[in-house]
Design a protein that fits this description.
- It is a multi-pass membrane protein.
- Its main location: membrane.
- Belongs to the exbB/tolQ family.
- This protein has one domain.
- The chain is mainly α and 231 residues long.
- It is built from 9 helices and no strands.
- α4 packs antiparallel against α5, α6 runs antiparallel to α7 and α6 packs parallel to α9.
- The protein is 84% helix and 0% strand.
Length: 231
């Protein structure tokens, strides 16, 4: 009999606890945190938007730079072999890609020593790589800074919790600690999310840029080999 009463009471307590449970909402967690935590999360959100803008802007630029006509080098070879340098330059201007600009730089140096042509192409290549990597380093900065900013929010949240607890006259109360703890946890999560997104975006852009650079180098070597061929 006593066992049955205890079991019934336990069921009622569990049912009441279940009905009192609150669903976890990110917006509520942020809004219930301290103002300092909300400011940090707003800063992280701005960094996230900035990182997304840089990523999509660069991915479109790299995609455009990687578009090269498969027959471009064959046409260049035909024009150079026929002595039609002007026609080759016109073709490069129509193509308007990093590869075509490098080839155009070499075509403008035809008649000079091969070392001078190679140097001119290398200098133009550095400029093209710089254009491709524009603002990419900012993504690396965001991926490293965001977790640290989140950790700063964690420290601030813990300080707030300890301060509120020290100035409380009711002793240890979870309601007193909750504001600071919400700040500590939400800023940490937000910082890690932004950092992970920034890190993945940065590495993807680096990989795509490297592929374009390799293609530029391969076509430049192919062009120089063409100039070394006996007439």
């Amino acid at each position: 009999m006593l066992t049955t009463i205890i079991q019934d009471s336990a069921k009622k307590v569990l049912e009441e606890a279940g009905t009192d449970q609150k669903s976890l909402s990110i917006v509520e967690l942020i809004s219930e945190g301290e103002t300092s935590g909300q400011v940090i999360i707003l800063l992280l959100f701005i960094l996230l938007l900035f990182a997304c803008y840089i990523y999509f802007e660069r991915i479109l630029a790299i995609k455009a730079a990687s578009r090269v006509d498969p027959n471009f080098m064959n046409q260049i070879k035909d024009h150079v072999s026929s002595g039609k340098i002007d026609a080759a330059l016109i073709l490069c201007a129509q193509e308007d890609s990093p590869v075509s600009r490098l080839i155009a730089k070499g075509l403008n140096r035809i008649g000079k020593p091969l070392s001078d042509i190679n140097t001119a192409i290398e200098n133009a290549g550095r400029l093209e790589v710089y254009k491709l990597e524009k603002n990419v380093s900012i993504l690396a900065t965001i991926s490293g800074a965001a977790p640290m900013i989140g950790f700063l929010g964690t420290v601030i949240g813990m300080i707030i919790s300890i301060f509120n607890l020290a100035n409380s006259s009711t002793g240890i109360d979870i309601q007193i600690l909750s504001g600071g703890l919400y700040t500590a946890m939400t800023t940490t999560v937000a910082g890690l999310i932004v950092g992970i997104i920034g890190y993945i975006a940065y590495n993807h852009l680096v990989t795509r840029t490297t592929k374009v650079v390799y293609r530029m180098e391969a076509n430049s070597v192919e062009f120089l080999d063409l100039l070394e061929e006996p007439a």
